Amino acid sequence: MVRTIAAFAGIALACAAGYVPAAKADYPERAIRIVVPYTPGGTVDLFARLLAPRLTEVWGQPVVVDNRPGAGGSIGADAVAKADPDGYTLFLATNSPLTTNPVLQKNIRYDALRDFEPIVVGGQNSVVFVTNPSLPVKSVKDLIAYAKAHPGKLSAGISGIGTTTHLALAQFNKMAGVNIVAVPHRGGMPSLTAAIAGDVQLTVSDIVPAIPLVRDGKLRALATSGAKRAGIAPNIPTMSEEGLPGFDLVAWVAFVAPAKTPKAVVQKLNTEVNKALKDPAFSAKLIAMGIDPVGGTPEEFAKFLKEEVVRWRQIVTEAGVAPH
Question: For the whole model, what pTM was predicted?
Answer without folding.
Answer: 0.87
